[in-house]
Every structure is written in structure tokens, then in C-alpha cells.
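Tutorial sheet, problem 5. The two components below are modelled jointly, 674 residues in total.
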Amino acid sequence: MARINRQVTLAARPVGRPKESDFALVESPIPELEEGQFLIRTIYLSVDPYMRGRMNDRKSYAEPVKLGEVMVGEAVGKVEASKHPKFEVGDIVAGRIGWQEYCVTDGTEIRKVRTGGQPISTALGVLGMPGLTAYFGLLDIANPQPGETVVISGAAGAVGSTVGQIAKIKGCRVIGIAGSDEKVAYLIDELGFDAAFNYKTTDDYIKKLAELCPDGIDVYFDNVGGPLTDAVFPLINVNARVAVCGQIALYNSTELEQGPRLLWKLIEKQARMEGFLVFQFVDRFREAMADLAKWVDEGKIKYRERIDDGLENAPKIFLGLFDGVNTGKQLVRVSQE
Amino acid sequence: MARINRQVTLAARPVGRPKESDFALVESPIPELEEGQFLIRTIYLSVDPYMRGRMNDRKSYAEPVKLGEVMVGEAVGKVEASKHPKFEVGDIVAGRIGWQEYCVTDGTEIRKVRTGGQPISTALGVLGMPGLTAYFGLLDIANPQPGETVVISGAAGAVGSTVGQIAKIKGCRVIGIAGSDEKVAYLIDELGFDAAFNYKTTDDYIKKLAELCPDGIDVYFDNVGGPLTDAVFPLINVNARVAVCGQIALYNSTELEQGPRLLWKLIEKQARMEGFLVFQFVDRFREAMADLAKWVDEGKIKYRERIDDGLENAPKIFLGLFDGVNTGKQLVRVSQE
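Model answer (C-alpha cells):
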């Protein structure tokens, strides 16, 4: 009487931009629960740019997904059966569930979800890893001061949109870089950014940034890398801080890309660039989550989610991240709440 | 009865590598002292890679030298006449004297020299700006811990050789990169570096660094930039720190040089790169100088000076820095002590 699980596995190592054929949809029976295990039904699956790195056959900060293995990923789900002392049927949980309809787990890297009055999907967005990434990357790595100018690339994404709003809470002038006029309008009109521009319709990034940042750039929160980042460097101020969060412009590169050598600028401006992973701050997640929840409740942080349906569509939805189709957090609905 | 001063001025803005003809040797009368001024006879003149930046028509962290102006530079000299309440005839002083035999000054950016038992020339080297640069760049920017691996480019220069010895005092494994076999031998045999290599006779920098740094690289102190720095990046450890002190490989570039994009590595390794200028730490020079003087007196920091004669040779001696002719501090003797 084993029920059938549907899973998306890694079928081939992509070269450059992944194709849908690099993934496979497979079926397998759900194993019987052993003592200490429980069964999660996946509701929302998160797709994130970092997953591109997991598809390579090369250890980065985490192990790659093996060929034939279920794709890694955070999801939110509901406990449907339990032989675990701490998780009960009906609990809403989040964590490393993977791209699958059901997950049997002993609870490793799974947590109960508390999103207060917010939808459970926010456990994958503004009240999950993207929110925490924004929080620590901005406040700890970049440490912006009132009146400083903060520039954000990938500003309309799940992380970038939260970074900008936290920077506004901290009294900064906030400039967003995004990939459509609609996103630019969203940043300015709905999220309260001071300015933003559409890089896809802008020829001279440096000129545009110089217009929008008359006092130079004190903080740059980089989700993108490549030519946008090159354009920020000439405008940084003394003591500038660059928080390097993502480099989505480069994730599908098949060779080591070249760009202008910029280190001299760090000397001239006594500036700092620092890469980070949200997991560095795991001991302080509780503190950050309390702040984020408060700001969301107060309406100081707004968020958007784009929810597309169907586990079988997860590869296509994931690939959309590289086209920038999403404003805010991109999710896949695997089953109904 | 005005005495004649000889000065080296900037005659032309260099394109790429400077030529001797970009400088001019001029003579002018030494002005009479006014109240509050004193006259310095230059003894040793420092030439440093940073001066290349001052020859460009572009503000960097400091104003450029104007065409026809005396070249900027630190020197040590002796007070020969004084109408200043705090400086007396016979005082040994150092500071922004410039490339000239005599300097009339009101004392701005001039300090009395105290080098204890060491030669007065050390006020331009291990007990001067290069020593302070090494001290703060290593200890404050990079903050090495016992047992960590520290790699230094330009390791046999005035700054690099001091950095390496301070890192040894702090219990680190120290690897130097230098430009001749003689320098490599000096670093290992005389200064106690754990290893070093001659980049001019090494084809594969990454392979060589991997051999010499079996536990990866925790700290990189960069005086050089360019391909050497590119080779360090693949080997950095989690939480690596890169102190960006100089980029001599690029100072004579006529266009913005290209290199591999490396920011992703900062994320993967949660690593930090920080540029600095010694002047950031001016409030703590006294503390640092006490440490440096103690270490020199105890023989824990050794130093070399290369002294070439003649103000008229200063341009040629300066240009030698870009060929790496000097081991340790390069000085020009302008007059006898």
C-alpha cells in the first residue's frame, strides 16, 4: 500500500545555462516510517539562484547534488504521519525537503514554522532564508549609517527588496537596480526606494548611477556581479562597504569571466568587500527573525511572492530566475495548503 | 647670498612606465627664512611605488603633483637654520620634504626623528611609513591568528619583508612571493619565512602556491596585484582576509586591465578584501612604533636598505622599483649624515 512520491532529480550536469532536460521527473514509493521519522507533504518549494551551483560537479561551500539525486531545496510542508517525538501530524514545517512531493525525514535541518499572522509561504521568503540573508548581509556585513547611500543590484528579488527596505528603516538613501520598468516602479512606488533604474534599457550604468547617487556610494549590496558591479566601483566613497551576496550574472558562465581589475579602488577608498553566507549567522537567526517579523507586521517591510503551480514545472520555474521573471520571492506550489 | 637648491620636478605626465625625461633637475635660490620657518638639508630621500600615482593628472586619495612642481616624497634631513620655536639647528627630522636638497618649511607634516639605536634612515623604512603600513595592514586589516598561513606578494620589499616577520612573531606560517632567487634566499635564510618562490622563474603560480600552502591561504597581503593575486584566490580558506596594500603590477598600465572575476570566491569562502592607507591609523602610530622599535631592537625584525647616491639619480632609482631591483627599503642619499 506504499504511496507514490514524485521527485525532480538531477539528470545531467548542465553546461552553461541549464536546460529542462538536465532534470528528470521520477516516481518512487514512499518508504515506511521508522521510529524517529516523520512524513512531510510538500506545499511550497523555493527555487533560488544558489541552486545553480549545486548542479556543478564541484564542491563549493556545499556538496553538489549527485546525478540521479533529488534536487536540494528549501520547502514548506505539513506533517502527515509521525513516529517522531517532537513533530506531530498537522505541524507546518520548513527546511531541506528537496524537490519532491513527500519527504521522509528524522528532522535534520527541518524546523517548525512560525510566521505569526503571515502566510506559511513567507517561511521561504521574507521570514526565511532570503529575509535573513538580507538582514545579516546589510546590517552585519555592510553596516549602513543614516544618510548613507546604499545601492542594491537584483533589487526586486526576494533578498534585494528586503535589503532596500531595511536600509530605508535605517535612514539610508536607497537606489535599486532591476531588470524591468515594472520592477523599477514597484521599488519606488510600493517599497519606498529613493530611486531605481532598469539596467536592460540603460546604456551607461556609470552615468546613471552618478545621476542617482550625487553623494557617491557608501554601501553596495551585490546580488548580480559582472558589469553592474564594475559600474558601481568608480563611484564608491571612502570607507565604502560591498556586501557580496550573489553573482547571478556569472552562474551560468562556462569559463572564468574577465572584468576590469578593481583592487586599486579598494586602496584609494579604503574600502572593503566581503562575501557571506547566511549560515554564518545561524546563532542569531532568532534575533533577526524577531526584527523581520516586527517590521513586516508594522508594514515597514512589504513583500511579494510569485507562486507557480506544479512540481513538474519546477525546472522551468527555476530557470525563469535567470531571466528575472520574478518580482520578490519565486515559489512552486506543489500541493494545496 | 642666497644658496642654491637643487630640485627634481615633474616635467611631463608619464604615459605607462615613466621615463627619466618625465623629470627635470632644476636649480633655484633657497628663500630666506621667515618667522616660524626652518631650513632642512635633505640626507635620505625615500622612493616608493605609490609616487607613480602622484604623477597622473587625476586625484586619487591625494592630490597629484602639478607639472613643474617638486616631486612629493618623504625624506630625512637635518635642521640647518631655524626661526621656529620647536625645531633647533641639528635636529634630525623626517616628513614631506620632497625631492630636493633643501626644504624651507613651517613644520607641516614634519616630525622629529627618534630611531633609538637604529640609523636615521630607518625613519623612512622599518621605523617609518613602510613599517607602519606593514603593522596596521597585517594586524588590523588581516588580523592573522597563530597557525594560519599568510602569503605576501612583494615580500622582499620594505613593506612585505616587515609584514612577513610580524606574521612570524604572531605564530603564522609565512610564504613570500618575490622577483629573484636572491630575494627568495633572503626571505627564507635571513628573515625566517617558511617558504618563498621567485615568480619570474615560476610558470604555474597556483601549483606552486598549492605546494607551499598545503592548508590553504588564510591571509593574503597584496602589494602587487595582477596575475599573482589571481593565483592566490583559488586557494583561500573560509574566512580568508586579503589586505590590499599596493598594486604595483598595475601602476604603469595605460588602460584598465582585465582579469578574472573573483567575487564569487568571496561568497564561497565568506572572505574579505580590504584596501587601506596607513594614514587611517594615524592616531595609533605611537603604539605601533613602540612595538616596531622593540622588535627591531630584539632582532625579531631585520631590515635591509638599498642606498644609492645622488639627487640627480632619484628618477632612475625610483624607476628601479618597477624592476624590483631593491631588496628592502630603497633610499637615495642626497647628502652625507
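Marking note: The radius of gyration of chain B is 20 Å. Full credit if you identified this.
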